[in-house]
Amino acid sequence: MKSKLEITRNWLPRYTGMPLEMFGDYILLTNFDDYVTRFANRFGADVYGEGKAMQACTNSAGLTMINFGIGSANAATIMDLLSARMPKGVLFLGKCGGLKHSTELGNFILPIAAIRGEGTSNDYFPPEVPALPSFKLHKFVSDKIVARELEYRTGVIYTTNRRVWEHDTEFLERLKRLTCIGIDMETATVFIVGHHNEIARGALLLVSDVPITPDGVKTDASDKEVTRKWVDLHLDIGIEAMTDIGASGEQIKHFTY
């Protein structure tokens, strides 16, 4: 295999266990196996990839959901592998830590940009290139949230490869100086690698903890409570947005520079 297309067409089914022809034109990404299970149960669809690095499921409407795992390296991998299918739109349903007192648990964030603190994205573009979502895709998701009479936040997400940092007061002070609204491990990578592969992309993030104070650091118990209260709604919005955008024929094409 010499070309990128040859490699990705072989590797996307290898990583997910799902045949290439079963991937839809619109994709939901997640870090959590539970999201894929809920998606599959909702539509009575089969989950592929049990025991593999990633799990995938496609419903009868042709919407695909993939659990790509945790971290920017995995985010880059799936956004590269999806170039085998060249979907019309990809929406990341992730969780993030809130960095403002206004980002309470259960809030949704539509990031206007992400800071590339993870390093992975440097393999795709110089550091000066901003990590941005596709505006039309985010506008469509925004419309769906507003139609439900829900609120959401906007702002910049800091993406890091560092998982255990909550104890580091110097790192926390740096985050405050950067005036970010939230922190995660994937959003900037999804945006940059999507840009690199000319794939329209976005992210709808659920605030799952507020780690700016010791009491706000995520625990097993607090994460289960967030899941119980808000994960189904998070999934609902993602499914509705990516299903309806396909039905409407909205053009969110990435332009080549």
* CATH architectural designation: 3-Layer(aba) Sandwich
The rough form would be described as globular
Report the β-strand fraction as a percent range.
15-25%
Tell me the major beta sheet: 5 strands, mixed, barrel
What top-tier CATH class fits best?
Answer: Alpha Beta
Helix fraction by DSSP (H/I, runs of at least 4): 25-40%
CATH superfamily: Nucleoside phosphorylase domain
Structure description:
Helix content is 37%, strand content 21%. By secondary structure, it is an alpha/beta fold. The chain has a single domain (4-248), classed as 3-Layer(aba) Sandwich (Rossmann fold). Strands 4-7-6-5-8 form a five-stranded mixed β-barrel. The relative contact order is 0.19. The model has no long low-confidence stretch (mean pLDDT 92).
Descriptors:
21% strand, single chain, Rossmann fold, 8 strands, 5-stranded mixed β-barrel, alpha/beta, 257 residues, globular
Furnish the topology, listing elements before pairings.
Elements: H1 4-16, E1 26-30, H2 33-43, E2 55-58, E3 63-67, H3 72-81, E4 89-98, E5 108-117, H4 135-147, E6 153-160, H5 169-177, E7 182-184, H6 187-196, E8 201-209, H7 220-248
Parallel strand pairs: 1-3, 1-4, 4-8, 5-6, 6-7
Antiparallel strand pairs: 2-3, 4-7, 5-8
